[in-house]
Amino acid sequence: MLIRESLEKWEEDYLSPYAMLSKNSKGRLRDEEPCDIRPVFQRDRDRIIHSKAFRRLKDKTQVFLSPDGDHYRTRLTHTLEVSQNARTIAKALMLNEELVEAVALGHDLGHTPFGHAGERALNRVCPLGFDHSKQSVRTVDVLEKDGQGINLTYEVRDGILNHQTSGMPCTLEGKVVRFSDKIAYIHHDMDDAIRAGILKETDVPKEISSVIGETCGERLDHFIHDIVMNSMGKNDIVMSAPVAKAMKDIREFMFEYVYQSPIAKSEEGKAERLVEELYDYFLKHFDKLPEALKRLTDKGDSKETVVCDYIGAMTDRFALTVYEDLFIPKTWHG
């Protein structure tokens, strides 16, 4: 028996009857020979970790643009925290950890530079719109490996596409990531806001903190425990009604006092204008794009889509460098 087959047998014997088994995957966009060692979701996880898009996450904004400090979250550290939350829940519920990890590590691969400010700008100027969940799937399907994609399984792609509140993944593992994403950003964005002096722990209203805890750590622990306890033995991933309401309330609190705060938002207008100007420039100078991207129009993609592919993939630092090269006068040396 191959190592992969023995691991698949272990899943069948030990995982929850509601878990997604690797051997039951709906498969990949393109058929390929299975690995003799790794089940399909482990293989997907490895492909994501080795992708260029994953490495770029380290230089993409989470909430605070160019923060003055080494301990603020980036899009990469956010992704790792989502993964850890999701794995903790999946292990407790005897779900497929490798599927959970693959979805978690891939869920933001298509995120823009400058966080949601960059996403808003591209969505505003591109007539086709722009959504980072759809772009994350496009990244793994098309953009990685110079237009070949990395050919992930249906279940991982579905979890990535549906990780936002508006989505509903087809697997429990995808639903775990959907919750874990919210838990992660509520936890770490508040922690960063406290570090930045925007909030104090005591600012959280008592009607919220009395349900889910007084500190960031207490709230993280409470959310995870509540999901595990209320989802045990069920073919669904759910929270108790009081904790679900507290999560909704604390998200609204964060939007009012952090995400829309003058400190966090102070540079976002500049970032949005930068992204918009890059979009206009490359739409007019399409020949300046990398060859691998320009070839996508031969496969039916519009120029607008490909320009979004290029700008959306940029790190904050690269976007600033490109903008400076294009629009900022340089000192003349005779």
What does this molecule look like?
- By secondary structure, this protein is mainly alpha-helical.
- The protein has a single domain (3-327), classed as Hypothetical protein af1432, CATH 1.10.3210.
- The chain has 17 helices and no strands.
- It has helices at 3-14, 40-49, 52-56, 75-92, 97-106, 115-125, 132-147, 154-161, 172-195, 206-212, 216-231, 241-259, 262-265, 268-284, 291-294, 303-313, 316-327.
- The protein is flat and about 70 Å long.
- In which range does the helix fraction lie? 55-70%
Please give the count of helices: 17
Biggest β-sheet: count, sense, barrel?
Answer: none
Distance between the termini: 72 Å
Total beta strand runs? 0
User: What string, H for helix and E for strand, traces the elements in order?
Assistant: HHHHHHHHHHHHHHHHH
| Fourth-level CATH superfamily | Hypothetical protein af1432
Q: What name does CATH use for the topology? A: Hypothetical protein af1432
How much is the average pLDDT?
93
Q: Which residues form runs of ≥5 with pLDDT under 50? A: none
Strand content: under 5%
The helix/strand class is: mainly alpha
Domain count, please report it.
1
Radius of gyration: 21 Å
Q: What is the CATH C level class, in words?
A: Mainly Alpha
- Which architecture would the CATH scheme give at its second level? Orthogonal Bundle
Q: What best-fitting shape do the alpha-carbon axes yield?
A: flat
